[in-house]
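>> received
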Amino acid sequence: MTSAPETADLQAEMAALRAFSAAVGSDPSLTQAAGGNTSIKDGDTLWIKASGTWLAHALERDIMVPVEMTPLLAAVEAGDPAAEQAHRFTVTARNPSGLRPSIETTVHALMPQRVVAHVHCVDTIALAVRTDAVAELGQRLDGFNWAYVPYHRPGLPLAKGIALHRAQRPDVLILGNHGLVVAAESVAETEALLRAVKQRLRQDARSTPPADTTRLAQLAGGGYRLPADGAAHAVALDSAATAIAASGSLYPDHAIFLGVGSTVAQPGETPSDVQRRIGSTPAFILFPGLGVLMRADASAGADAMARCLADVATRIPQGAPLRYLSEDENHELTNWDAEKYRQKLDAAAAKR
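>> returned
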């Protein structure tokens, strides 16, 4: 690949990182659509997944971007808004793709370990959205060097939250209302750590009856269609999951790719009825007891996040105390230039 590092050792680790990234990106229980990112450090250069690209494509596309860490970390330390724009620290001569580094570049740069993986593990999210998350996690992660970081917007605010734990040098971070970060000195060690943490945090999803795809297909007129992944229906087939979804957004990528919260149809409503009632055309609609319909032009990213919502909501125990993203938090996500860039790439990919 034209942007590959030069040393034999790093080339071997980069090859391993691409294989690991592709495996993680192909597992919807770990990462969905353009979410999640991986990285490896080479001296002062951080190679990290490009914003808006999919980990699942790591073996077929050049998705890694080189970033200078020293000036980036200095910007974080100074609280410089430039830290929000990681592309300003890209090593241009080694970035022929011209892509921007991940929104989470500062997270990876702050971790002292050589290899870092940030994933949106559904088992982790189902715990990290709870107000009693620290107590629940403490029981499950005993023996790991881990830290809990309350929700902060991705970018500089999250970097500052993580920086508070640098003296501890954790190799496992649970990001409130967001996901999981694991880090080690090699790709193999990082992969093993991810596997071990995921097993500790595992929660079985509640089983649901099959979706009524015949009835949904009849309702699908008016610019809606069945979801790409049938597993997405589960959120509308489990009453507790439906109630959870109806109450708001639980994590950033939901707000970015599906919009704020979830729209639940009332008994007997069609998509057109729903649109008239709420005055907009939601990316997806939950029909309790039937399943889910996606807007006809919904992107692959939106489809992936609909599946993610079902996977997360059916893992949250009924009655668990939850923390939803606030109105201000949703607003800053949906109006942030860095996220608009990801949305633009996602929309363009959907047209290919």
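>> The first helix runs from residue 8 to 25.
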